[in-house]
Request: fold
Amino acid sequence: MPRASWKGFLRLSLVSCPIYLSPATTRTKSIRLHQVWQPKAGHSGPVDDEEEDEQPAPARRSFAEDFRGEARPEPPSPARVALRPHDPHTGEEIEREEVVKGYEYERGQFVTFTPEELKALDVESSKIIDLETFVPRAEVDPVYFSTPYYVYPDGRIADQTFGVIGAAMREAGTVGIGRVTLSRRERPVMIEPRDAGLVLITLRASGEVRAPSFAAADAEIDADMVAIAAMIIKRRSGHFDPATFRDRYLEALRELIEAKMKGLPVRPREIAPPRPVVNLMAALKRSLAQETGAAARTARKAAGDRRQASLLLPVSGKKEDAARAPAMAATARPRRRKV
Reply:
């Protein structure tokens, strides 16, 4: 059973079934950069008497030194900063159990809440997703999409009802609009059929989406330029495959960390900015020629692969070889020359 983020019921009019939501996405394991305290040069910090006679630790190379090519020792080793709740007046650390939810209605004036009081705020959408409206999928602007979840029937008793609701939406070609309370917020949601199941996508509220402020075009767009651009797009047409995407920044950060750990010199990467387009038509034609050449090279490579495959002779069985041997011998026998 996938991990459940929310449990409740899916309701269509007077019909309902128990369901649970499971996140449809996962976060890529990132490289966490912590806040550390880097003492300035000359800051020795507290030193015990027993440590005064010890040899200082060898200085490590810094990115700045690698960049400038100068060999200067770094300041004392950095230490990670720990952020803990503390009394703002005395600075003393306080227990996390003493931290409660509160709202500042005036500067320095708070009203606090107990977990029981917050639990009493639950509304119907805390347990029930009511499919209130059904709309064509194309009418829901993707700019409102927030977080996707997979919807699963919760137990065998829900299988039939769950399947009927999904099949009805597939036949109607619509998606359901409802609402659910997640993380102390009631959010509009869209539910659509996906294979034998359902997908729920939380939607942003209208106040969370800014109206676009696109500038109106002052002049008509050249039809010939649009035609060339369309041909370039056609050359690059393909299918969406998220597996082809890789985080190049994360890879570069990992290489930087490995180089720093090994004490290797680090050089910044130069990123050449694109040249400004002075003649748009000429730039489009050069782009089209480049894409056409790339497509031709790909086609030639594919044709070469097909020819290579045709050169592979089939391997036949022993019976077929025995039956074919006399004919091959007759063919191979040299003909006599006529005198």
Observations:
- The radius of gyration is 34 Å.
- The domain at 6-24+125-208 is CATH 2.40.290.10 (Ku70; Chain: A; Domain 2).
- Helices lie at 63-68, 115-119, 159-172, 223-235, 248-262, 280-310, 318-332.
- The first strand starts at residue 6 and ends at 12.
